[in-house]
Amino acid sequence: MSTNFNNPKAISEAGKKIYERLYQAEYEKSHLGKFVAINILDESATLGDTASEALNSARARYPKGLFHLIRVGHSGAFEVGLAHRHVHADRIR
C-alpha cells in the first residue's frame, strides 16, 4: 500500500476503500449504526457501539495501527449542523 501516512485525506480515502471492498455489504446488514475502526495498515476492522469503544478496542488489538473511523450505514462518523427544529428562519443568513 502506498498511502501517504502524513496526509489525513489519503488515510481517509484508504479506509473508505477498504471498508467498501471488505466490510460494507455485511456490516450494513447486521451492524447498522455501530462504529467501525478500519486499520489501513492490515485492513482489519474493529466494531464498537460508540466511536470511543471502536477506537479503544482497535488500539488495544493493534497498538501500532493507523485507523479510519466509520459509522456503519451513515455518510460520516458524526453529524454536524443546525438543529432545524430549534432555528427560526430569520436567524439563518
Flag low-confidence runs.
none
Structural class: alpha+beta
Gross morphology is globular
Helix content: 25-40%
Give me the count of strands: 3
SSE pattern, N- to C-terminal: HEEHE
Number of helices: 2
User: What's the average pLDDT?
Assistant: 85
The end-to-end span amounts to: 45 Å
Largest sheet: 3 strands, antiparallel
* Tally of structural domains: 1
Strands of the widest sheet, in order across it, are 2-1-3
Assembly type:
single chain
- Strand content of the residues, in percent? 15-25%
Radius of gyration: 16 Å
Textual characterization of the structure:
The chain is an alpha+beta fold. It has one domain. The chain contains two helices and three strands. The chain has a three-stranded antiparallel sheet with strand order 2-1-3. A hairpin with a 5-residue loop joins strand 1 and strand 2. The N and C termini lie far apart (45 Å). The model has no long low-confidence stretch (mean pLDDT 85).
Keywords:
93 residues, 3 strands, 3-stranded antiparallel β-sheet, alpha+beta
In short, what is this structure?
The protein has 93 residues and is an alpha+beta fold. It contains two helices and three strands. The longest helix has 23 residues, at 8-30.
Secondary structure blueprint with pairings:
Blueprint: H1 8-30, E1 35-39, E2 45-48, H2 51-61, E3 67-71
Antiparallel strand pairs: 1-2, 1-3
